């Protein structure tokens, strides 16, 4: 992430926005169950909100510095595992829900995004939900990501991409600047 993006994502304003708007919108009416996984928790903006809805929470973070920071600041609330969402060091069918918020565009290619989706399917229990959100492509979105990896996910492609992997009950919704998705592992 570029310097601006790092500053924004660790700010209290971002944590408030995520806790009060993004996460509730993305997971409304979805039970997270007893064991949720957040892929790419970053600075931990969603930890408190997710812990209110899930029995246990695990965060899978690719950035070693962010994983260490998350352990130090939120260690009692979330089990932090350092790893890549495209090759999760986690057992099959461990989680009742898998979640990711505003991070998919940081996965460097559509094929790698599909690998992340396949891994989410693998670690979900039957009946478990995969859900989250990401930004819609726009000039402002790309400007904010100058110097970052920025591969926006076209929401119109998600239904087919997730269905190919075996997900069912797929729902995609869009807002002014973001989209949300939900899919079930049968």
Would you kindly provide a written description of the structure presented here, covering whatever features stand out?
The chain is α/β, with parallel strands linked by helices and 186 residues long. It has helices at 3-9, 12-27, 47-51, 64-74, 110-123, 139-144, 155-164; strands at residues 36-39, 57-61, 79-82, 95-101, 124-135, 168-174, 178-184. It has a 7-stranded mixed sheet, with helices on both faces. Strand 6 (168-174) and strand 7 (178-184) form a beta hairpin. The longest helix is centred in the first third of the chain and has 16 residues, at 12-27. The radius of gyration is 15 Å and the shape is globular. It starts with a helix and ends with a strand. The mean pLDDT is 94.
Task: Write a brief structural summary.
The chain has 186 residues and is an alpha/beta fold. The chain has seven helices and seven strands, in the order ααβαβαββαβααββ.
The number of E-state strands comes to 7
Oligomer: single chain
The number of helices is: 7
Task: Kindly estimate the percentage of residues that lie in beta strands according to DSSP.
Answer: 15-25%
How can the largest sheet be summarized?
A: 7 strands, mixed
Q: What's the overall average pLDDT, rounded?
A: 94
Shape: globular
Low-confidence stretches: none
Radius of gyration in whole Å, from Cα? Answer: 15 Å
Identify the strand order in the major beta sheet.
Answer: 3-2-1-4-5-7-6
Structural class: alpha/beta
How far is the first residue's CA from the last residue's CA? Answer: 35 Å
The ordered H/E elements are HHEHEHEEHEHHEE
Proportion of residues in helical segments: 25-40%
